[in-house]
Amino acid sequence: MEKNNEVILQMDQITKSYGTLLANDRVDLTLKKGEILAVLGENGAGKTTLMKVLYGLEQANSGNIKIRGKDIHVKNPAHAIAEGIGMVQQHFMLFDPFTVAENVVYGNEPKKNVFFDLKAANDLVAELSQKYELPLDPKSKIEGMPVGLRQRVEILKVLYQNTDIIIFDEPTAVLTPQEVRELLRTMKHLAASGKSIIIITHKLNEVMEVADRALVMRLGKLVGNVNVCDTSIEELSFMMVGRQLVDKTLPEVEQSLDVLVVKDLSLKTKDGGDVLSDLSLHVKGGEIVGIAGVSGNGQSELVECIFGLRKADKGSVKVKDKELFHAPVKEVRNSGVALIPEDRYIWGSAVDATITETAIMSHYRKPEFSKKGILRTKSLKQFAQRLVNEFSVKTDNIADKTGSLSGGNTQKLIAAREISQETPLLIASEPTRGVDIGAMEFIHDKLIEKRSKGDAVLLISSELSEIMKLSDRIYVIYDGQINGEFTRGNVDEEELGLLMVGGKKQ
To answer: What is the pTM of this model?
Structure first.
């Protein structure tokens, strides 16, 4: 089908600064009707800032925006939606006490006379959910909902708004291969029906499959504007990071005894339903063990039970032969466990804390950082600066608030903090969620380095490519149970994806 040449969106010379940081430096963007445009770049490159300006979440210092040839100044997201612009956020904008349906229809609720028609809302959301193959119960509350399901709600919100321009910010981060294919097909269908789509993603294979054109940003500037049919993954990655990326192979490491042993772990909901059911696994020293599964199948609860954040109903959790079942978090940490949590903002950092304070969370009681309860300020600052330098965290000052960092740089800071503790066991839960390919490569190298030192890594990730690339062994989790186990190299991505949704190993 021949593409429409009508320009629906034009952003000219967009400049946005935060203090001395120039997030967008005279960036131009055009989007045609029915086009899928990928916006690429490392964390801190300015791509999310550019989209926030378009969606009215941020105001540019200078520049112009035209929608269908008309100059507009997008004041806020409500104004953006009124102009036909919708955005699926990377960090979710949901009301926890509300149901799925209430969140999806919020701001444009179906009415019966003058009252909110909840039944109609439930029916509409159920229909949308089925149509786009994004399974959700319209009556479920957001509170306590896993990350993957929250993202589905965000996607349904934008689809419900019936916008002409849809911005997807990392939309496939928590989907199985089958779900990714469905979502990409949905994007193509939307584009074919005249919708215009902007997708921010680090998954270059998805860009090659779904996008018509790609804009590449680096350090706030536009460095590339290419037709996808005329480029390659290698060229795009080189433009993004300014260097050639090399695939790493896992070095041979002699594995030692079990560091982590989980046996018959069970956890029930308040109404008696099974969250975890007699789940058992083990991780040896010198081994990365991956847990693959669709978000919401017990991964989060498994990590919380191991780390002391939640009390399981029965079972055993041993680290280096020490029983830690029902042990408090402090004892778990002191026993040699570090954790990169799945949500960098809820569990991993405090946005109003300084970068230094976030860097020393869980470290601050160590003798080199405090004496008789008094913090050694100089040592803390030196430590934080070392982590920032070693992990290439982009910041002007370690005294700045953590909330001033981009999402990917916050993730790198948390990974730096946990890996630097040099514990015998590291639990890495979604360690590269929302980070660019350069940062992903760096974090992967650090996990491999930890493995090479003889430590154990338990890797929980919804990125199957990450699981398959890094893991010596893979457990598949489904409905709170282990639904399959593989050693490195003996499973393909398709089969793994099927097991993640409840299929059985052939």
So the answer is: 0.66
